[in-house]
Amino acid sequence: MLGTQKTDAVTMMSYGFDPYLSSWSPYHGAIYAVMESMAKIVASGGDYKKIHFTFQEYFRRMTEDPSRWSQPFAALLGAYDAQIGFELASIGGKDSMSGTFNHIDVPPTLVSFAVDVAKHTDIITPELKQAGDKLVLFQIDRDEYDIPVYKDVLELYDQISALMAEKKIVAAYALDARGIAAAVSKMGFGNGLGVEISAEIDEEELFENQLGNILAEIPADALDGITVPYTLVGTVTDGAFVCQDMTLSQEEALAAWKKPLEKVFPTKASEDDAKVDSGVYKADSVYLCKHKVAKPRVFIPVFPGTNCEYDSARAFTRAGAEVVTKVFKNLTAEDIRDSVQEFEKAISQAQIIMFPGGFSAGDEPDGSAKFFATAFQNEKLKEAVHKLLQERDGLALGICNGFQALIKLGLVPYGEIVGQKEDSPTLTFNTINRHISKMVYTKVVSNKSPWLSQAVLGETYCSPASHGEGRFVAPKEWLDRLFENGQVATQYADIEGNISMDEEWNVNGSYMAIEGITSPDGRCFGKMAHAERRDTAVAMNIYGEQDLKIFESGVAYFQ
Hints:
Blueprint: E1 9-16, H1 19-24, H2 26-43, E2 52-58, H3 70-86, E3 90-96, E4 100-101, E5 104-105, E6 109-119, E7 134-138, H4 150-165, E8 171-174, H5 179-189, E9 194-197, H6 203-207, E10 214-218, E11 231-237, E12 241-243, E13 246-248, H7 250-262, E14 297-302, H8 309-319, E15 322-327, H9 333-348, E16 352-355, H10 370-376, H11 379-390, E17 395-399, H12 401-409, H13 411-414, E18 426-428, E19 436-444, E20 460-467, E21 471-473, H14 476-485, E22 488-493, E23 514-518, E24 524-527, H15 550-556
Parallel strand pairs: 2-3, 14-15, 14-16, 16-17, 17-24
Antiparallel strand pairs: 1-6, 2-6, 4-5, 7-10, 7-11, 8-10, 9-11, 12-13, 18-21, 19-20, 19-22, 22-23, 23-24
């Protein structure tokens, strides 16, 4: 039944904490931590009435000095006051009083985590949607002690939720201590849109603490119907950020936002942005299956560390296949023998073998997917895979860790299990020398593979990537051969489909920006980006086609 059940429910989780406010007053810090976590749920389309909190507390070490005991007590009083005021409960927490090293103390820390449930159709994303829309600020009320007026906050959040339900709010952002300026910048980065700030907003307002307030994008023609009090912040534009006589381009703003951590966590290891002009390969014919099956069976082997088998099984089931998954057990020699026997039987009954993503054996020793490759070098499994491919016209697919397995086995680029040779293509560490996790764009540059029969040659597709060893490297002779044979199936590209060595798009620094390759006949296909993670409401604010139809193509090959 895996993959046949659908749900429109989503789990929402947010956090709130301002270390500067908490250092000034742990009591206020805890109150606003609770409210900030609430505001983020509301700004995302959630119902605050369903929220439950859990708190993470971290304070300086307690000693015999009585004053040191006041901070956690004040913070807990603040959190308790907020819970009573909002009529919402905390269901758990974690605390530590060990935040001291010599004379250095951590700031008084009470982080509020808010957990909620909603439907994916309720979700509002923060990126600006369209030039001409208006940005408005909804502000909470505070008393003379700078404590939120809880009743009024709840009423305001109810009104905002109602506007979202009526689709009058198309984007929203829960403001924090960094104020409006930081918020409009982040909202603009998503779709490359700018904001012209209203003349009524002065410089001080742009940067003042706005905890609990919500910034919302509303279409201009819907603004007249808004009865909730608001302040007009500005107008969404196609270009830069404009405030009075200051104009800041998207590029300048984005560079300033990225710069502080670039030396700590670099996003690029090289400034190389040379274009890759490799063209597309249009095959005269695609390998046809001679052994037709109405409902092909897919075998997905699972090793310790594999974590994409559920997504992969769901994708194949959705495409119309029957899926079998089995775990390779290795606690004892008998477990290994039994697993080999079970795997051999499963492969003999399958038409497709799919190596899923993850970190088999923790990518140790000596690099990723070695456990996968070692197991399938077993003569029985090796023979079973060869029979699947050579006698039953079967298919093989590997994604991420599975691609690494195909490479190590030799199924790509050779089309059979021959292992890696000294000059074979391989996958190695990303150029930034750490794990990357982001959406990537890949261009289909060959139609030779049955796996890509329903993708459009020359089109660019968007998929999530998550890997530490995804850099494709090969000698020039191999690169030339792969392109000449049409075995380079997909390449990293920008949104418009331009291929280059720019690490903004070629995220791991792969040679010739290669993301996926096939065997000579196209029936074995390995790629890095996770096409199996596409589904309804997944990455819903990432624009562009996300469905390569790999799984549908694989199933259709047998029908």
